[in-house]
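Study this pair:
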Amino acid sequence: MKSTIVFFVKIITCRKLFLKEVLDRIKKISVRLNNILVDRDEKYFVVQIENNSKKAYDIAGLSFFKKSDVGQLEKIMNPLYRFNLQESIDPEGINEVVYVFKNFNISAKEKIVVVLADANSDNMVILPLDYLLINSPSN
């Protein structure tokens, strides 16, 4: 099972698409959703982290949350598999990461939030993804 996921992840990282992007202008860090793919029972999120600054960017973590408009409840989503998340991104560097989750859909009142946390401060880059993007993968 894991070898099948690794093989599929290597194939989808070769495609260069881009669906949504957010940029932290102060630190010149961007988080971009390149693709969402579905294969059998899994949903693959291809996320690109780009460091456009002159110094390295240390990553504390990349997390996915399911957020509901009702009561503003947030639930952390635990991936089945994570591929290629680096601890630090070199200056002018790019890190393409794949997160694999059990296949799911969300309602119109929910959204997925991708959060990139900085290891050296409390700063975060937040990428909100609405239900239309999540429920309509690109494959």
Summary: Residues 2-12 form the longest helix (11 residues). The CA atoms of residues 60 and 119 lie 4 Å apart.
